[in-house]
Amino acid sequence: MAEAHQAVGFQFTVTPEGIDLQLSQEVLRQIWLSGLRAWQRHLTRLKNGLKRGLYPMHPSSWLVVTLGTLGSLHLRLDPSLGFIPRISQALPVGQRDVAGGLLFATGIWGAMVLSMRYTLRGLLSYHGWIFAPHGTTPLSTRMWMMMVRLFSGRNPKLFSFQSSLPRLPPPTLHDTLTRYLESVNPLLEPEEMEQRECLARDFEKGEGRKLQRYVQLKAWWAPNYVSDWWEEYVYLRSRSPIMVNSNYYAMDLLYHKPTTIQAARAANVIHFMMLYRQKLDREEIMPLMLLGTVPMCSSQWERMFNTCRLPGIETDTLQHMTDSRHLVVLHRGRYFRLYVYHGGCLLSPRALQNQLQIILDDKSLPQPGELQLAALTAGKSVSHGLAAFFSEGVNRRSLDAIEKGAFFLTLDDEEQGYRLEDPVTSLDAFSKSLLHGNCDDRWFDKSFTVVVYRNGSMGINAEHSWADAPIMGHCYEYILAMDAVLFGYTNDGNCHGSLPSGSLSPPQRLQWLIPQNCVSAIAQSLAEARALAADVDFHTFPFREFGKGRVKKCKTSPDAFIQLALQLAQYRDKGSFCLTYEASMTRLFREGRTETVRSCTSESLQQRLALFRVASEHHQKLYRLAMTGAGIDRHLFCLYVVSRYLGVDSPFLSQVLSQPWRLSTSQTPQQQTQLLDLRTRPDYVAGGGGFGPVADDGYGVSYIIVGENLINFHISSKFSCKETDSHRFGGRICQALRELINLFSVDKRNG
């Protein structure tokens, strides 16, 4: 067969004259190009590693310092004040002066590198700028920003600032406990509050001091005292299904569909995903900078591609490969390995479309047990079954193909997306499909799964342990812009590009020999996953009455405005306030991830305009405290982890960490607004993304502020809870937003 011929590098036959060896020039060329590409990649990483290690200085600066030193010596000037002669005397006979000059110049240059780096780290350890009143920039902050720019070097790469970022410092025990008690004061009855204060005082005077010393020791030793424990204990050691409970999704553009051809849309997405990975490997992605000046940690980008969560009995692990030349495609229960490079070059979108069309046209049936295999990544009770059932032979090779692929792609037979004639039902169904699908058609353990539907709509389901949503969001913004805006499709909806000169091997079917006990495990996991998915009540809707443009005219933070509206909606929905989680990033510090902003405060219980402004400003203060390492929950979490290691039973920590987050919220940030400019393309509206409910009797709310006049909300809850209703809560949010904006309208008229 043709594919067999392409797969063999050489062939031989036995003839009367001896062995006739026939080399395949095409395959040998592929071998040569593959090795060449690998060496180019290694050299690029070596070069970037050197630049990263010297940043903010450039390697060429060594040459400048050296030439300046040697030039001075040639002119019989001694810039070392006597050090070069002393160095020269200690050297063997030869060009002592030149060698001494080289050593001195190198030492001076190394001292300059270290002084620049530590000066920059000291500057970035200052966070007073973030607490300046909104819309003002004090002179001290402007001077500080000038110094940061001066010591930040030029043309930084993605990881250039990593060694200059400060470590995350733990707050003092007293400060954390004080802020914790302030956060629960509006939620507890007086008797409960008094009891909680007693527990906090006893903890501060007793076991808390010992636990704090261990946390401070870790903060001194480790790059980040929170992140590794957070990843392990919150994500990897969790034994709950990651589908719905941990994974999140990102939605397609709402009102613009670039093409209705499934293979074409998938091909463009694959091509630009791999281009983004190429930029990532070369560190060509610009590090994100607050105010265009303050760098944020980029470490979470490292495991975006070629990464998979490997299930275990007590804990899962993350496997990350340095490179992968393929991805695995799932269609109608069949798994295909798709190579995305040919001749050392990335396949064009048109070539990828042809390869994907082969998969779509394939009429073969799933092998026994293959149809619902992915359900093993969706359920809980047999999550470690992958290792047990696929440890050797053909099963191991097929599982390796999935786990070591660049990412996972599902060609879904459903049609999803926004429909003008039925906007409510269509968006709700779209969200649920991206969150859990049929529970057997996404590989939930992969770092992310791209889902492309039959009508050309698309989205992403992402695993959470390797990074937080803004990291995946940055990549997704790039993909949407490149796919829909910058590259696009032909007039008939097909991909641009040309086919390679040589013939391509078709995608390879993965082979499985699934035993009967594995089939039973798959059925068990699928039943559990579908019960979980069926319980998710999702409501996604756009709020078009106003957006951040009007809110900013009221001189208040759009995020604080929305958070206070959510508090009002919660009170109207339940008749009481609850412990509220809002995610805030801590990437101003090395290896930072997130902190919690406890949005429900005593100030937020008020409704009048003057008190609204106080509540809004207090929320912004809490958000800024969380960003600068002075939050509450990650510190308490680490104290709890230390207590478990030491076998210390703390009634205070047990009570703190047992409180449910009945309202869990997160904003999806738009990080590259220039890519999808709504002023020139008003239909290119990003749908944002969402996640499942955190508490059985609570709500999960994600929102994205799109442009100046639109806010998209994603609300989740559980049907099994009679106290919650996602559509009802959506209505409460709209009502609260209108009432709050009317406060400012009334104040303006009265003024």
Automatic annotation (TrEMBL):
Its main location: mitochondrion. It comes from the Eukaryota. It catalyses: (R)-carnitine + hexadecanoyl-CoA = O-hexadecanoyl-(R)-carnitine + CoA. This is carnitine O-palmitoyltransferase. PROSITE patterns: ACYLTRANSF_C_2 (PS00440). GO terms for biological process: carnitine metabolic process; fatty acid beta-oxidation; long-chain fatty acid transport. Residues 1-47 form the Carnitine O-palmitoyltransferase N-terminal domain. Pfam families: Carn_acyltransf, CPT_N. GO terms for molecular function: carnitine O-palmitoyltransferase activity. Residues 168-733 form the Choline/carnitine acyltransferase domain. Keywords: Acyltransferase, Fatty acid metabolism, Lipid metabolism, Membrane, Mitochondrion, Transferase, Transmembrane, Transmembrane helix, Transport. It comes from Eptatretus burgeri (Inshore hagfish). The active site is at H464 (proton acceptor). PANTHER family: CARNITINE O-ACYLTRANSFERASE, CARNITINE O-PALMITOYLTRANSFERASE. Transmembrane segments: none annotated.
